[in-house]
Design a protein that fits this description.
Blueprint lengths: L1 H4 L1 H10 L8 H7 L5 H9 L12 H16 L5 H15 L2
Helix pairs in contact: 2-3, 5-6
């Protein structure tokens, strides 16, 4: 994990694999203003891109989202039911 997140390496990795492209200063510096990078820079400067909050129970939170999302896609839950159930189950996890 340290290898792929190291400041001196992330730019080169983003150039090699677009899945590793992110609005980190070290990545944006290496990528320049090519392609989507110029938009990420613009969004970052405008304050649109923000750090995601960390959830202490991320694994369980992902399960909640997957379960509710799949229930909605399978037609087992309406959108309102999925949103309500997802909120309830996420709140039950605590912070």
């Amino acid at each position: 994990m340290r290898f792929i997140t190291a400041t001196e390496r992330v730019g080169a990795l983003a150039q090699a694999n677009s899945a590793l492209m992110m609005p980190r200063k070290s990545v944006l510096k290496v990528m320049g203003d090519k392609g989507l990078t110029k938009y990420l820079i613009s969004y970052t400067k405008a304050g649109v891109v923000k750090a995601r909050p960390f959830h202490a129970h991320i694994g369980q939170a992902e399960v909640v989202i997957d379960d509710v999302f799949n229930g909605y896609l399978a037609g087992q839950l309406s959108l309102d039911q999925a949103m309500s159930l997802g909120k309830q189950r996420a709140e039950a996890l605590g912070a």
